[in-house]
Amino acid sequence: MDTDALSHGTCPVARALARTGDCWSFLILREATIGITRFDEFRTRLGIAPNILTHRLKALTANGLLEKRRYSERPLRHEYVLTEAGRDFLPVLQAIGAWGRRHFGGGAMAYTVDAETGQRVQPLVIDQASGAPIGTRPLRLVAPEEPARA
Amino acid sequence: MDTDALSHGTCPVARALARTGDCWSFLILREATIGITRFDEFRTRLGIAPNILTHRLKALTANGLLEKRRYSERPLRHEYVLTEAGRDFLPVLQAIGAWGRRHFGGGAMAYTVDAETGQRVQPLVIDQASGAPIGTRPLRLVAPEEPARA
To answer: Which chain B residues touch A118 with a CB distance below 8 Å?
Structure first.
């Protein structure tokens, strides 16, 4: 995949995907959003090959979703902490999870609750402009050259 | 990636990602949501290698996101139409696009408008239970074994 072309293209979806790379990256971000920061934790929890994990952490760091920080001098150890853009990926993960639950649910599944109220989180993507859930109103894609209608 | 383990795991995000596979799949779904159905159109618009496109279309069909339909007998031709689960992926794509725009915007970018009002769509992932945008309140992940708090 020509991620360079994607990352500078006109489509915001493609720009986003060029930065997250593949499904492992999504799962690494998922772990990061629940507080995982260390290489060995990512590796064990995801069952991911070390070389793939190294590559993905490097890409996520280069793309500004994770920040590599030293937490020990001897031995030299680093951890990976979400940047602002990385933290802001949480809503996307929740939207993906809600979709997965709706269509591929069944059997035991983890879920998210509001930490204060204990109430189960029900992610929904809305259009903030109209207030309507996305998918309930007809949409139209506008190419960047086309002048916006008021 | 062991997609079989992921697709039956307890995490709804992983279940979703196991079905979409990789970034090409997301982009194929993006094209499908704007009405693209034919192999050659996907290929040309995405600049994707035919063998990869064949593989991804087959996986998306097997996973229930696309349905393969014959539209011509002679020559024999098929098209790929979104299933209900596939159509319901639109909000996820919009959430990904909004994130891409926020953090990797700049330069010319396509955008989506409400087809009736012409107003620009502003995707936002909210928790329908609390009404709050996801990311503005502390969340807690609950493993499936743990009994839910009311």
So the answer is: 149-150
